[in-house]
Amino acid sequence: MIDETTLRAGLDLTLEHSDFEGLGRLQRGKVRDSYVDEGAGRRIIVVSDRISAFDVVLGTIPFKGQVLNGMAAHWFAASREISDNHLISVPDAQVSVVEECAPFPVEMVVRGYLTGSSPTSLWTYYARGEREYCGHHLPEGMTQHQRLDAPLITPTTKAEKGAHDEPVSAAQIVERGLCSAEELSRLSEMCLAMFALGTRLAADRGLILVDTKYELGRTRDGRLVFIDEIHTPDSSRYWYAESYEEAMKAGSDPRPLDKDYLRRTLIARGYSGRGAAPPLDDELRLETARRYIEIYEQVTGRAFEPDLEPPAERIPRRLGLKT
Q1: What gap in Å lies between CA 144 and CA 251, rounded to an integer?
Q2: What is the mean pLDDT of residues 200-218?
Q3: Given a cut of 60, is residue 18 above it in pLDDT?
């Protein structure tokens, strides 16, 4: 695990946003700044250290961008056996060069367990008596955190920045013209195969892949590929496998390894996404960073080695920009 001195140094090394000239048309998302070069058919993704919860950008976390970019590259490489993805190269710890794709306007959420605490989570719906979720029927008598008989695909719309994603059924996706029935069938097959791979590889590392979300797109030559990220702390929930059975017997929560720590802390402090977000104090930022780094090391089996050069200085140089 990263030493405390290095971790605290990261407080002054976060990248809140980028604005690099000469890379292409800038598209700024919640976490990623993308530079689109239409002529070259590529996109340069700069992964900032911004963090969001409740669909709100809250601040920055030390080394978060390096963790996310490194984990995405790890999973893109590990999953080549089952599916193509958009990654071309990783010229910097916080930068990925990818194929430009036409993204599908839905996020494919795959859930393996009856859990969650957000207003749109599977458990929230079930706990208030609803038994239909995104076109799936859930049986009576289930308990919180129970494993589902089979993973469920529960898509959401891709909301604009500041708006909230909306759970939708497969039928609604087709009815709204977000993609065709044939495309949705193929995307579902790809996501279930990816989730199965993630579940197996996570188990090898003593983890349970609880749920995740995937984004997919179509390349210029017509291939369907995974884009954005795969199985990172921002897209996925993990539990320690050794804690699961005991937690279920005790009626408690399995030991988590995900960014829900930040969400849970803010909820305990009285913020759940409404009104002005409270500032993130340094200790909360540091503890969140520890969680991100822990999951990187636990999932990849490698020690996290941060790049300590200021990102605003090193990234332009590594991309060949004049400074």
Answers
A1: 8
A2: 97
A3: yes
Look up the CATH number of domain 4-101+278-318.
3.30.200.20
pLDDT of the residue at 323:
65
Round to whole Å and give the CA distance between 100 and 114: 35
pLDDT band, very low/low/confident/very high, at 160 (cuts 50, 70, 90): low
pLDDT of residue 241: 97
With a CB cutoff of 8 Å and minimum separation 6, the contacts of 19 are 26, 33
**Per-residue pLDDT band at 297 (split at 50, 70, 90):** very high
Cβ–Cβ < 8 Å for 306, 14:
no
- pTM for the whole structure: 0.93
Superfamily of domain 103-250: ATP-grasp fold, B domain (3.30.470.20)
What's the sign of the alpha-carbon dihedral 43, 235, 51, 71?
negative
Query: Could you give the CA distance from residue 5 to residue 252 in angstroms, rounded to a whole number?
Result: 34
Q: How far is CA 214 from CA 79, 110, 248, in A?
A: 13, 8, 28
Query: With 0-12 CB in 10 A as exposed, 13-18 as middle and 19+ as buried, what is 2?
Result: buried
Three-class SS of residue 4? helix
Query: In whole angstroms, what is the distance from residue 139 CA to residue 126 CA?
Result: 10
Output the six-digit token pair for 116: 């969650």
